[in-house]
């Protein structure tokens, strides 16, 4: 019987989490704190960062603080990480988690939707990785870098195409950096979650028939069988980073989808084509965020969604999404 080796301790190490003010990023920071790391959250919204730090301050372990930074700005990411490394005597763990989700038909999201996804998701991960690596190579504990992709980056998902394209690029970046950085003592972990109950539907951007797109996405994101408890997901991600695993795919549905796509790509494409036929087709160009769409729902639809997505609604309250 194979014996699992204990994960090496990470107490006392300095960790940075981008997109750390809410949702999965907030939970990743909490896991790092509980394991004794000194954690720095990077996010764009100063007020949201303040609320996140206040929520995390109750957890015993390391220290936590927030730094305002837009990961799309390469120079800003470089400067902020250099400042954090100077203040903490180096960097040991960096998790690139920031990004956006756009839901709707490709023609409704348009070229701007694809550019925005690549800028926020892929360029955000790239800027973070390239700015972090010089510091991680100098870590006495051996640097750890994690890039959060998605199962949507392992197979294309209808009505999430900008997101899938950007996450596919993140997957390639993580795999390539893992190969290149191993000789320098830095481990790179590619993380590919499936649906998680984080409350992210309130910040996702919806195009086309926004009401119907919001309805299906928020329902699936909160479905107990298809989606994963976000706290459990964060625990597994941090454990994978701690153990220097090269790749982690979360949720049984995501693992099954990735495997089937690898073995039978034509059959998978036919299946997703059938799925696309039942999704909304019409609607206006441009997007609105989930909280705006939800506010415009009629009371009967709002009550039904709150019942069907009760777990996701609770997650939104708990994970600083409102």
UniProtKB/TrEMBL annotation:
Gene3D superfamilies: NAD(P)-binding Rossmann-like Domain. Keywords: Oxidoreductase. Residues 13-194 form the Ketoreductase domain. One of its GO terms (molecular function) is oxidoreductase activity. InterPro entries: KR_dom, NAD(P)-bd_dom_sf, Sc_DH/Rdtase_CS, SDR_fam. Transmembrane segments: none annotated. The keyword Oxidoreductase applies. GO terms for cellular component: membrane. Belongs to the short-chain dehydrogenases/reductases (SDR) family. This is Ketoacyl reductase.
């Amino acid at each position: 019987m194979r014996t699992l080796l204990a994960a090496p301790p990470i107490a006392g190490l300095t960790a940075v989490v981008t997109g750390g003010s809410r949702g999965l990023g907030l939970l990743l920071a909490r896991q790092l704190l509980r394991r004794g790391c000194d954690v720095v959250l990077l996010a764009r919204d100063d007020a949201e960062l303040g609320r996140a730090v206040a929520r995390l301050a109750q957890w015993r372990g390391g220290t936590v603080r927030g730094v305002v930074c837009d990961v799309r700005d390469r120079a800003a990411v470089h400067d902020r990480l250099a400042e954090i490394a100077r203040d903490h005597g180096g960097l040991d763990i960096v998790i690139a988690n920031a990004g956006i989700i756009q839901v709707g038909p490709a023609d409704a999201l348009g070229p701007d939707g694809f550019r925005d996804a690549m800028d926020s998701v892929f360029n955000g991960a790239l800027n973070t990785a390239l700015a972090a690596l010089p510091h991680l190579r100098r870590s006495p504990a051996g640097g750890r870098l994690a890039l959060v992709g998605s199962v949507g980056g392992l197979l294309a998902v209808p009505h999430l195409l900008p997101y899938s394209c950007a996450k596919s690029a993140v997957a390639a970046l993580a795999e390539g950096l893992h190969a290149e950085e191993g000789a320098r003592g830095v481990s790179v972990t590619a993380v590919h979650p499936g649906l998680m109950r984080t409350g992210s539907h309130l910040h996702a951007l919806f195009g086309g028939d926004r009401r119907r797109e919001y309805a299906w996405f928020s329902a699936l994101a909160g479905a107990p069988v298809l989606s994963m408890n976000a706290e459990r997901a964060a625990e597994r991600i941090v454990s994978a980073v701690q153990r220097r695993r090269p790749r982690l795919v979360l949720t049984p549905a995501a693992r099954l989808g990735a495997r089937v796509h690898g073995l039978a790509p034509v059959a998978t494409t036919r299946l997703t084509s059938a799925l696309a036929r039942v999704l909304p087709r019409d609607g206006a160009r441009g997007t609105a965020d989930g909280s705006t769409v939800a506010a415009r729902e009629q009371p009967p639809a709002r009550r039904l969604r709150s019942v069907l997505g009760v777990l996701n609604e609770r997650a939104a309250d708990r994970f600083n999404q409102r």
